[in-house]
Amino acid sequence: MSEQALTRRGRPGYDQRAILEVAVAAFIEFGYDATSMGVLATRLALSKSAIYHHFASKDELLELALAEALDGLEGVLTEESVQVGPAIDRLARVLRGAVRVLTDRLPYVTLLLRVRGNTDVERSALSRRRAFDRAVTTLVTQARDEGSLRGDIDPRVVTRLLFGMVNSIAEWYRPEGPEDAAQLADDVLAVALDGLRVNPRGGPPASADLAAPSPG
């Protein structure tokens, strides 16, 4: 469904975009399975038939919501800046873009992170998410092979750790908070990549200053 279709005015007080936003909030609060069309109708102060005027089913609402997050993440991979340059720089741009998508589309990404594959819609979304992860793992591998990242950590593990940190932002980030999205991306890159970069001698970063002092 196109953006134009989602923003088309329908019943008084709610367009399709507004209904979708309320549905996403309810899915996050109650869980998708526990959120009936009756719950949505109550929240919207509409009849169920009024919701069906815009959406064929609850599954369609979920599919559109998950696509909002996934389209954003997949779009990062196709940006021109991610296509050229050293792999370490492209990886940094992907991470920055992922943070941007998360902060711009916070409810939708939060919902995506809670999907467990209980329906065909959820399984399709998880498949797209795994494809995104594989693309990032390829970048991590290329950066390692170029000599920019440490070679003693499996690239698949690196990808999980990187996006474990990025995804955790959804649990605590608030748009009205003191840190804007750009600064947040800077912080993520500093923490995520500095510990993975090789040191000037070509080995893992030194960790002596992080070790516990010897007793006595």
TrEMBL record:
Q: Which UniProt keywords apply?
A: DNA-binding, Transcription, Transcription regulation
UniProt cross-references to Pfam families, sorted A to Z = TetR_C_24, TetR_N
Q: Please state every residue range assigned to the domain named HTH tetR-type.
A: 13-73
Instruction: Extract the PANTHER family matched here.
Output: HTH-TYPE TRANSCRIPTIONAL REGULATOR BETI, HTH-TYPE TRANSCRIPTIONAL REGULATOR RUTR
Q: Which organism is it from?
A: Cryobacterium mannosilyticum
Recorded GO MF terms: DNA-binding transcription factor activity; transcription cis-regulatory region binding
According to UniProt, the name of this protein is TetR/AcrR family transcriptional regulator
Residue intervals annotated as DNA-binding region are: 36-55
Per its UniProt record, what InterPro entries does this chain match? Homeodomain-like_sf, HTH-type_TetR-like_transc_reg, HTH_TetR, KstR2_TetR_C, Tet_transcr_reg_TetR-rel_C_sf
* Domain of life of the native organism: Bacteria
